[in-house]
TrEMBL record:
Positions that bind S-adenosyl-L-methionine: 71, 76, 124-125, 140
Primary location: cytoplasm
Source organism (scientific name): Ferranicluibacter rubi
Subcellular location: Cytoplasm
Gene name of this polypeptide: rsmG
Role, per record: Specifically methylates the N7 position of guanine in position 527 of 16S rRNA.
Gene3D superfamilies on file: Vaccinia Virus protein VP39 (3.40.50.150)
Official protein name in the record: Ribosomal RNA small subunit methyltransferase G
GO-annotated molecular function: rRNA (guanine-N7-)-methyltransferase activity
One annotated Gene Ontology cellular component of this protein: cytosol
Reactions catalysed: guanosine(527) in 16S rRNA + S-adenosyl-L-methionine = N(7)-methylguanosine(527) in 16S rRNA + S-adenosyl-L-homocysteine
Keywords linked to the UniProt accession: Cytoplasm, Methyltransferase, rRNA processing, S-adenosyl-L-methionine, Transferase
Pfam families, per database record: GidB (PF02527)
Family: Belongs to the methyltransferase superfamily. RNA methyltransferase RsmG family.
PANTHER family: S-ADENOSYL-L-METHIONINE-DEPENDENT METHYLTRANSFERASES SUPERFAMILY PROTEIN
Length: 219
């Protein structure tokens, strides 16, 4: 019998993927009783505030890719990308997280859901020598844009083509500050989960070069 599919922010996902996401949610809520994985005030709306919010990244860049997710914390967005990649049995997500307890949770989450990823208990600053190449990078709630660009510069110089960062309402200030240090193209995607949030997509990044990159607003 064919698996029933469901819809997740415009993505068709199989019953198996839905079950993986449900299993992850149960695990997350169990571990969140003893480890601070997200702001406690958001635990009641994990489906929207965290899972759908994270799934936006895969929806913007679907298909097999090698991802690096910086500061994965409780798994957002990296574990959700890894679960969605399991649907197509291709691609991989390297989760970088320096906190041992969170890393332990991430390992269990990947193992129990069968998601396509692995955990690196590292400082982000040390990760480029351990994980030398990737196609795309994600990060949510980890650092301001200038520091994120500093973090991703080695990967963007060695083949990564796109980076996706969730940002809140102050993103314009962060973009203006980053423009003083980096040249990059930017597409701003309106979040479909949070009215005052965006996902910034960075491409063609170079450090300290002359001239401003193009700014496009996604429709
Ligand atoms: C505010 S949490 C966000 C977690 C997750 N991305 C989310 O959106 O729910 C930031 C996470 O990044 C990790 N982190 C911050 N700076 C880091 C660094 N330099 N190297 C590795 N992990 C870092 C922290 O341990 C924490 O788990």
């Amino acid at each position: 019998m064919a698996s029933q599919s469901a819809e997740l922010i415009g993505l068709r996902v199989s019953r198996e993927t839905t079950e993986r996401l449900q299993h992850f949610t149960q695990l997350f809520l169990k571990w969140a009783k003893t480890i601070n994985l997200v702001a406690p005030s958001t635990l009641g709306d994990i489906g929207n505030r965290h899972i759908r919010d994270s799934a936006q990244i895969y929806a913007l860049a679907p298909g097999p890719k090698t991802w690096i997710d910086l500061g994965s914390g409780g798994g957002f967005p990296g574990v959700i990308t890894a679960i969605l990649l399991s649907e197509i049995s291709e691609g991989w997500v390297h989760l970088v997280e320096s906190n041992q307890k969170k890393a332990a949770f991430l390992r269990v989450a990947l193992q129990e859901t069968g998601a396509r990823g692995s955990v690196h208990v590292l400082r982000i600053e040390d990760a480029p020598t351990k994980i030398p190449a990737c196609d795309a990078i994600s990060a949510r709630a980890v650092a301001d844009l200038s520091l994120l660009l500093q973090f991703i510069a080695p990967w963007m110089a060695s083949g990564a083509t796109r980076a996706f960062f969730h940002k809140g309402r102050d993103y314009e200030t962060e973009v203006a500050n980053a423009r003083g240090r980096y040249d990059f193209d930017l597409v701003k995607h309106q979040s479909i989960v949070e009215a005052d949030s965006v996902i910034l997509e960075i491409t063609r990044m170079q450090q300290l070069s002359q001239g401003a990159g193009a700014i496009n607003v996604a429709r």
